[in-house]
Amino acid sequence: MSQFWLFHPRGPIAQAGFQSILVDVAAMMIIIGPTTLLLLWCIWRYRRSTSTAPYTPGWSHSLPVEIVSWGFPLAIVGFLSYYTYISTYAVDPFNPRLMAAGTSADADRAPIDVDVVSTDWQWLFIYPGRHIAASNELVVPVHTPVRFRLTSATVPNDLFIPQLVGEIDIMPGMLTKQALIANRPGTYEGIAADYSGPGFSWMQFKTHVVSRADFDRWVGTVAQSPLHLDQAAFDSFATPTINSSGKRIYFSDVDEGLFGRVIQNVMAGKAYPTPSLYTEKKASYQNGRRQPGSDAALSHSEPGMSN
Amino acid sequence: MVDLQGPWTPLLGRLTLQEIPFDSPIVFGAFAFAATLAVIIIGLLTYYRGWGILWRDWLTSVDHKRIGIMYLIVGGVLLFRGFIDAVMMRTQQVMAAGPASPGYLGAEHGYLPPYHYDQVYGSHGTIMLIFAATPILAGFMNYLLPLQIGARDMAFPYLNSVALWMTAVGAGLVMLSLFVGDFSQAGWVGLTPLTEMSYSPDVGVDYWAWALEIGSIGTTLGAVNIIATIIKMRAPGMTWFRLPLFTWTALTTNVIGLTAFPVLGVALGLLLLDRYIGTHFFTTGFGGNFMLYTDLFWIWGHPEVYFIILPAWGMMSEIIPTFSEKPLFGYTVMVAATLSIGCISWTVWLHHFFTMGAGPIVNVFYSISTMLVSIPTGVKVFNWAFTMFRGRLTFTTPMLWAVSAIFMQLIGGLTGMMLAIPAINYMTHNTVFVIAHFHCVAMVTIFASVAGITFWFPKATGFKLDEASGQLVFWLFMAGTFTVFTAMFGLGFDGMPRRLAYIPYASWRPLMIVEEFGILLYCGSIAAFIYQIVVSVRNRAHNLVDVDAWGTTRSLEWMTHSPVPAYNFAVIPHVNARDEWAWRRDNGLADMLPEHYEDIEVPLNTPVPMFLGIATAGFGFAMVWRIWWLAAVSLAAVFIIIIIRSFGGTTGTVIPADAVRRTEQASRRKRRQNADNVLGDGVMAFAVKPRA
After folding, report:
1. Using 50, 70 and 90 to split pLDDT, how confident is the model at A246?
2. Which of A70, A87, A283 sits opposite B379 (nearest CB)?
């Protein structure tokens, strides 16, 4: 059954989003509830078959009613306007107070940075300073602010981890930012939310929230990967690929300037065009599911970690 | 020029035999269905010798009523196609839920490979908004406006026909893309840079862009016509504050249409320049900025939302008073609310991309401007409620649909106010929560349109639709709506993204099954609707109506015969009150006859708009496939036809006073014969006593 992830937030930003839903629905029900009852009552009371109901065929104007019917929505919208101001700042990743809020005692840890690149149709999470990268898998330590810089090598997408953080657009040739703090260890689903082509439906990634020690161990594992990530390896990785097997790849020795160069290359006109294999016929998907040769070049790595 | 993937020949452009997907059983099935339908229609037309009637009374007609009905038919056919798309999408998603789900027909999961599924959802959105809802509402406005303001036709009858043909050509191109080539994979909004050559190398995006471009010409021309008609063609005494509310909403909606659709035309034009001559307006590199397209698209796209909802509110404001037997509550306020919604519609477009990473101040500004819309909308809901308050409500099918539309409005409003808050929007943007929200709002238009069709059907045909089967249609549709969209809101709270060809989590499957069950209810409703039409036509002798089909109607269109004669009103009425017809009925003036009749000038039929349509269709098809010679020939033909027409002689003809009198008297004789029937049905509030 559905888990209704939005109702089970595991971090302050998702928590603020959930809280906003509750406040907004409560405020709106103040007006929609009585209106619904009024409508239902009118339908029942004044149906033609009830001969006892009063009938005033000329009554079509009343100043008090009109004052209420403008004033009531105006008051609610007034309150919600104030609330939208408060809540928007509450989830703004550039809000300095945000990264301290909602965290437990050990939240004063130094934040970690993750650079995110979306390709057709995979995720690449680069950990700058640690010289490692992982595809289609995000691992972050618990109670630690995580700061994202995001860009796309091809078309726009959205990064979305329903239980941790709301959507942020990822745009080719541009940089957007996002941030999260995870309050509980566990595995959370990460979703590509903005349609990006035929492989979009297979663009999920697991988000593992782990203890600091496990995170360090994981970094160590990835750092031993035989695959290095330079521009050539990235171009190979970014070749349009439908990742229908949920494959993860670990890279060590990641080129430090790679993220910036992806943006610059896109601005200079670099594209990873969708091959006609994926598009030329309506039923040719199965043959063109994976790029020939890409499997051999990139080995499948196991995460080797426990939560 | 740009580099093309695949072959190109001077004679046929990119068109090859391989572009016709004979090998796809789904497309082939659709083709077989369409071909069978075409053969049946052609056979029936030939058997009943209908070709002459089709040519004289319909294809070459400039009569606003026939054009209105043709708009409704185009919209209805496309609505059916869009519905089939929806059935395919829901079925694919329920079949393709979870990694273990099996695949058929070449798909890894479900029965549609992703590239095919993407085209289905793209065409569903494009068709439903641009080629179903918009023509259906244009049909209502065409049919009703001149009647409601006491005019004989639109201000520009010939332009009206041209607008219809442009819309039909756009719709035709979308339908053609099903059988020849592809449709756009990039959604109805045309997500740039996915629509650029790098990511959509095939003709799909070209079909989508040219269909919208040509269709939007039709909508713009229609808007010019409707605005001019309302301003200039009102009957004597029809002051602004006596206009029926539907006319007010039509005016507002077409001001939106006139100002918004050119923006779409420009946005698509720039995109087509990118695709045809290799400019870089919306590419990611070389200085292009795809967010510019997003802005331009939604500067049109959000007003378009109100373009679609306002006439629906107008129809509800006509139907609810009729079956409450009271005037509309707070008429002046309703007009003010309509106009203010029209104004606010221009200030909210950024809420379609709250997640682009703009700062909080930008998002808060658009959040508040979005929420402002809910104030006049709330006022409308209150006024409908107070129209029913102390009324005498009769729940005929139109009233059922109209009142239920208010409830859909409440759900759409509640969820809209959630999406208007950026903190909530970040959690639900691009998820099916948004889909469920705007389908609830679109349901207001659908409910109001079905209400409108049932309500005005007797005015157009002289007989009512069958009531019992109409109620069945309503309850099945209502149940389907409730089932599908409750489940979809639930999936939205799971964070399920829109546009998924494959559902990655098996845990979402139960709610998908619920949605599929709702779709079955919808199918039942469509079947019941077809049954309703058949029964109504078969039993029409029992459902004949007089001028005032429902007995409690209020506005001017109910003063003239059902069906309405070509000249609308034998003598133009003088308007003395808001709700003129109700006023006349209440004051015993309902059966007044004019002293004498005069000659009536009506515009002459002309095939020119159809020829323009054919040439434009040729141009659109040629541009899609890059057949340059055909494009040049077609475009030249368009200009030559326009030039020849401008030298044309007579464009009008005269219906002599004698003929008018004969028609009026014959209609009164017929009415006498039907009187028992009509009175027996309890729908006529007065007895007709024709004068000798």
Report:
1. confident
2. A70
User: Does the pLDDT value for residue A285 go beyond 50?
Assistant: no
Closest chain A C-alpha to B273 CA, distance in angstroms: 17
Query: Is residue A54, in this structure, part of any structural domain at all?
Result: no
pLDDT above 50 (res A287): no
Tell me: do A22 and A118 sit in the same domain.
no
Instruction: Indicate whether A173 and A201 sit together in one domain.
Output: yes
Helix (H), strand (E) at residue A234: helix A231-237
Work out how many CB contacts closer than 8 A connect A with B: 356
Rounded to a whole number of angstroms, the distance from the CA of B435 to the nearest CA of chain A is 13
Domain residues for the domain of A70 are: 5-49+61-90
> Is the per-residue pLDDT at B233 higher than 60?
yes
Determine the Cα–Cα distance for residues B170 and B167; give it in Å rounded to an integer.
5
* Domain identity same for A220 and A110: yes
A248 and A220 together in one domain = yes
Residue A111 and residue A85 share a domain: no
CB-CB under 8 Å, B23 with A166: no
* B350-373 per-position pLDDT tens digit: 999 999 988 899 999 999 999 999
Query: Scanning the structure block, which residue is given the tokens 């209609």?
Result: B667
Q: Are β-strands A137-141 and A186-192 bridged in parallel, bridged antiparallel, or unpaired? A: unpaired
Cβ separation of B357 and A169 shorter than 8 Å? yes
Give Cβ neighbours of residue B194 (< 8 Å, ≥ 6 apart): A155, A195, A196, A197, B185, B186, B200
Radius of gyration of the CA atoms of chain A, in A: 26
| Beta carbons of A172 and A152 less than 8 angstroms apart | yes
Do A35 and B359 count as a contact with CB atoms less than 8 A apart?
no
pLDDT the model gives residue B676: 44
Do A21 and A147 have their domain in common?
no
**Is pLDDT above 70 for B511?**
yes
| Interval B684-689 mean pLDDT | 35
- Put simply, whether the predicted model's pTM sits higher than 0.90 gets the answer yes
Residues A124 and A238 in one domain: yes
Q: Which residues of A touch B327 (CB under 8 A)?
A: 58, 60
Number of domains in chain A: 2
**How many residues are listed for chain B in this entry?**
692
Domain containing residue A141: CATH number: 2.60.40.420
